[in-house]
Amino acid sequence: MTEGKALLLQAKVTNKDLDTFESKLLNLCQQYFLDPLNSDLLIPSRLKDIVKKYEEKQSLSKFEEVYIHEYMLRSLSGFLPDFQKKIRNKVELERVAEEKIRQEKLRQEAIEKQKLLESDPVYIAKQKEKALLKKYDINEYLSGALPTELSEILNKLENETRLSQDEAVWLNTIGKKFFSTKVRHKFHRLEANYYLQEYAKNTKNIWNAINASSQLRKCQESPEAEEFLEKISTNGIKDKKLLSAYFTTLGGVRRDLRKVKVAIDNASKAHNLTPDNYRPCTLLGAIYMETYQYTLGHEWYEKASERGATNQSINADLKSIISKMDKAKRNEMIEHLLKLDPHAYSWLKSLKTAVVNKPTSKQNKVEQSVKAQKKASPSQPKNSEKSLQNLLEQGAKAHNLKQPVNLSKSSCMKPKKK
């Protein structure tokens, strides 16, 4: 019995289980090993004699006691492993059941804790704040402690409320790192909506229409701006400044939409109305640069500078234009501008180096690819190129500028003699 207990103790069975085991074991011994009538085992004749003596309550000799003891041990060893396995299985099932109860208790506690959190105003505000940061692509970990101004601004944007002037200034200065693309888009959309509403109240105030269109451009809604401006009648308007602003804005919208011909026509009208205003000049400079007429673009930017445009705004324009070009055209434009005015365009050298320092073999591949595309593309026939060339020449002639060179030779232009 001692060996059986040791085996069971290895399975960490309780005392109660051991008592039950002993009781059942004794019953089994009585039934299967000491009662040959109920036993399915092959009982040796020697054992039968011993059992008979036992039933008749006769004393057993020492030999008989040892014999039956050894026989019982050998027989018990046949079913003890199975019995032990059953006990272990029982213990494991109880452990699993207890673990399920424990896990369920923890789950219920977590649910209760979450309910308490969700009813906490501070927690609610924090979760809302995180959701807004994610929506407007602002990294909460990079932003550190969230400024009060940003929290108020995001709530206003979410509620479709226009920002105050102070808030707009904060976004463009102190909070510039939070002025993400999505925040910028929503800001300009709300500005556009405000001016559209103001114009609807008084359609005679064209300035509101111009401001609305300018804001629509900034939130990538140029098609909407063009449709809106085209509905406005300029007949009877005698204010040249207002007309110039209208045509400059419309020209900018059409520049966004790649409607080069009408964009140049609008910008030219604006310039003729207000020759001393730099804005139409800046617009024409940008259009000509984008159509690879670098000398004309440079001349119009010079005119804009003479009329008050800052070098910072002109350079920002050029940087934006260059960033949208493929490598070959970008390099071509940078080289041409450096020849026209090495001092004014010296800041372009770093961009030129970034392009030119590529391995020669790769640069040749790019040039060959560009040539192959030009040769194979059916969308750029010679007639189209000539048409654009004629248009640009007309524009230059109208404003007493130098004749633009042929488009196909733009990279070989000589700098303007001053």
TrEMBL record:
Annotated region (Disordered), positions in chain: 359-418
Domain of life (superkingdom): Bacteria
Biased composition annotated in UniProt, kind: Polar residues: 359-392
Entry-linked SUPFAM superfamilies: TPR-like (SSF48452)
Protein name: Uncharacterized protein
